[in-house]
Amino acid sequence: LSGGSADENGMVPFAYLFIMYVVISIGELFMSPVGLSKITDLSPQRIVAFMMGIWFLSSAYAFQIVGFISKQLAVESTDVNVGGLQTLAIYTDGFGLIAKYALGAGLVVLIFSPLMKKLMGNVH
Question: Would I find Transmembrane among this entry's keywords (predicted)?
Fold first, then answer.
């Protein structure tokens, strides 16, 4: 999306970065309380605290996966100064692939949501 508005040096406007940080932060603010609430509702009373710990542990594993992906997308610039135009195509393709995987995962969740609702019982 932002790759199309890059200038001749391969630099994209700062507004894209700012807007994406805002969107991701708002999404995280919505997801965390809802997830913890569902864990409280769906877990047996004696293991609620343990399941909340699993929730935060899964976040830690997600951060590890993100670190691995970012290392794979990193551009080696040992001796030569790599400009924005050279890296623009690499990052645009990389983030496009991440977006495709995210959309695929979202579709899988949508497909299995009736089964998850059935397993949840009367918890809304």
Answer: yes
